[in-house]
Design brief:
131 residues, four-stranded antiparallel sheet, 10 strands
Length: 131
């Protein structure tokens, strides 16, 4: 097995795209700037709020029952990124507001969509451009 160590990858045809060979000769080109998840979090919103695991998340704040703010380590380029989320025990994640430095989410019961409730996990990920 070989080991490749580098501080930077740059595509030959386009600087922000690289070609990935995915076994059996399958080749795909991935846009590194837009094609990867930039932020994800597994949040325990019950009791004392805690980030169980994450990428690019600096902190989480418990604003109220089922209402959390997650602050990013590295900002997004704009607030028009694409977030997706879900939770446990029939919870859905509602993105109340999106900013370049954080997002505010609600965890709600999916049966009626009006009752906020703490969730473990409350998870989401974000695709888009980093600043």
């Amino acid at each position: 097995m070989s080991t490749l160590r580098t501080n930077a990858l740059e595509g030959m045809d386009a600087k922000n795209s690289i070609t990935i060979v995915a076994g059996a000769g399958n080749i795909t080109t991935t846009n590194v700037q837009e094609g990867l998840v930039k932020i994800w979090v597994d949040l325990d919103g019950t009791g004392t709020i805690a980030i169980d695991d994450s990428l690019n998340c600096a902190s989480a704040t418990d604003n109220n029952t089922g209402n959390y703010t997650v602050t990013y380590t590295n900002n997004m380029a704009s607030a028009t990124y694409s977030p997706t989320g879900g939770g446990s025990n029939r919870r859905v994640i509602i993105f109340e507001s999106r900013a370049t430095s954080n997002t505010n989410i609600y965890s709600q019961d999916h049966n009626d969509g009006t009752n906020e409730a703490d969730a473990d996990p409350a998870c989401f990920h974000i695709c888009g451009d980093l600043a």
